[in-house]
Write a structure and sequence with these properties.
Organism: Arthrobacter mobilis
Protein name: Antibiotic biosynthesis monooxygenase
Distance between the termini: 15 Å
Largest sheet: 4 strands, antiparallel
Low-confidence stretches: none
GO molecular function, one term: monooxygenase activity
Shape: globular
CATH architecture: 2-Layer Sandwich
Strand order of the largest sheet: 2-3-1-4
Number of strands: 4
Keywords: Monooxygenase, Oxidoreductase
Number of domains: 1
CATH class: Alpha Beta
Order of helices and strands: EHEEHE
InterPro entries: ABM_dom, Dimeric_a/b-barrel
Length: 97
């Protein structure tokens, strides 16, 4: 079953240009990771520092493998210097209601 992960990121206002470049580099890799169906970036129309990364994965296992890979790198996220606080991630299953 596919899974959607939504990451909420809030960037420091003075870092938006650098953050956009770093997100672009990060997502270039993410989009090619096995099981990734796509990633959309949504930027809040009122607060341009608040972004949602909406990731679609073939399965929870594919998403878990991606997260394991990212955490195994042992390096701080490229995005960390630009964040105003810790990101939050929520995962959703598609309902056929």
């Amino acid at each position: 079953m596919s899974v959607t992960a939504i990451a909420t990121l809030t960037f420091k206002p003075e870092c938006l240009e650098e953050a956009q470049e770093a997100v672009g580099r990060t997502l270039k890799f993410t989009r090619t990771f096995d099981g990734c169906l796509g990633v959309d970036v949504l930027i809040d129309r009122v607060d341009e520092t608040r972004w949602l990364l909406v990731e679609s994965w073939e399965s929870a296992e594919h998403n878990a493998a991606y997260l394991s890979y990212r955490s195994s790198q042992g390096v701080k996220s490229e995005l960390a210097p630009f964040l105003a606080g810790p990101p939050s991630v929520a995962k959703y299953d598609l309902s056929h209601v």
